[in-house]
Write a structure and sequence with these properties.
Layout: H1 26-29, H2 41-49, H3 66-75, H4 78-86, E1 92-93, E2 107-109, H5 110-124, H6 127-143, E3 155-156, E4 159-160, H7 168-172, H8 178-201, E5 222-223, H9 232-249, H10 252-255, E6 261-263, H11 264-270, H12 275-292, H13 296-303
Antiparallel strand pairs: 1-5, 2-6, 3-4
The chain binds iron/sulfur cluster (SF4) (2 copies).
């Protein structure tokens, strides 16, 4: 199955590190929108693909074959271009605060997922490590807000297991200036309100209110080679270039059907659960876990993957 790109989906959990605007914005539908300010991805797409791009009915969800797409991305040098884009960000020295930022899991573009997937499958070549990452991704997807101690699936013994290919979200974390962080945190608070209501309506007891999962701004890093943090405009430019690598990978008509920017555990979960059934499964698994400290349904789902990232 493919991944549905539903702008209202409750899949967009805590978007604290997302550098992307909500999907369909009024401004994206209006000619000339965004002139003079930071451009959104939607505005760039609307300019390139037509102003009605976001208002046309999207085509049916497209299946994608990870192996095949990863091969295509490699043959077309897209991974190399991706690393080049990442390379434009300044180096930082992390203040080693104890992995606050790695308690969440990053959003990533499909091109980044393929990059990470390929690294794990063909560079790491460690089936046990892959199975552990997969297991943690499923735990994150279904139990993050009801079970203790669920960190980014890539965090292993206090280290990032995929550091050389970590996605843009992780790379720009803590580089953004105060204004951009505050704007994103505000959007995240709005987004989690609906999710909080959704969980409560279904009787799920959360570990703490969802807004408390929003990561605080990191103030412990040192940025090399420049005095100031990055502005929204600077980050957006890099974000859009990354998104356009994804665009180079799929046909325009597929672009809206294959979700191109999603939370990592969501990418994993939605490859085995149809998007329309995901929310129901998440509630059922959370309730099961809440009642007995384990979920047979989650265990059964994990079996379907055979220890391999999809
Ligand atoms: S980047 Fe910041 S939040 Fe993340 S571990 Fe380093 S100091 Fe902590
Ligand atoms: S991918 Fe790596 S750097 Fe990013 S949140 Fe996960 S463990 Fe941390």
């Amino acid at each position: 199955m493919g991944i549905n790109r539903d702008p209202n989906s409750t899949m967009k959990w805590i978007i604290n590190r997302s550098v992307q605007e909500p999907r369909v914005r009024e401004s994206a539908k209006q000619p000339g929108a965004g002139q003079g300010g930071p451009q959104t991805l939607e505005q760039r797409l609307a300019r390139e693909l037509g102003q009605d791009y976001f208002t046309r009915t999207p085509p049916p969800v497209i299946e994608y074959d990870t192996e095949k797409l990863a091969r295509r991305a490699r043959n077309d040098n897209l991974f190399r271009q991706l690393l080049k884009i990442y390379g434009r960000l300044p180096e930082v020295t992390c203040g080693d605060c104890g992995h606050v930022c790695c308690s969440d899991s990053p959003d990533m573009y499909l091109i980044e997922y393929l990059h990470v997937w390929r690294h794990i499958r063909y560079e790491m070549q460690d089936p046990d490590a892959e199975a552990r990452i997969l297991g943690r991704a499923l735990q994150w997807a279904f139990l993050k807000f009801v079970a203790e101690d669920i960190f980014c699936p890539f965090l292993e013994e206090g280290r990032c297991a995929i550091y050389p290919v970590r996605p843009l979200n992780c790379r720009v974390w803590a580089l953004e200036d105060e204004a951009y962080y505050l704007a994103k945190a505000e959007r995240a608070r709005e987004s989690v309100k609906k999710q909080q209501e959704y969980f409560e309506r279904h009787g799920v007891r959360l570990l703490k209110p969802l807004k408390e999962f929003i990561l605080p701004r990191c103030r412990n890093i040192r940025i090399h080679g420049r005095d100031a943090h990055l502005t929204e405009e600077e980050i957006r430019e890099i974000d859009i270039e990354t998104a356009f690598l994804h665009k180079a990978l799929v046909r325009p008509e597929e672009f809206r059907s294959i979700n191109f920017h999603l939370h990592f555990p969501g990418i994993v979960a939605l490859k085995r659960i149809p998007a329309g059934e995901f929310d129901e499964a998440r509630i059922a698994i959370a309730l099961e876990y809440q009642a007995g400290g384990a979920s047979a349904r989650l265990d059964a789902l994990a079996q379907k993957y055979g220890g391999r990232l999809p």
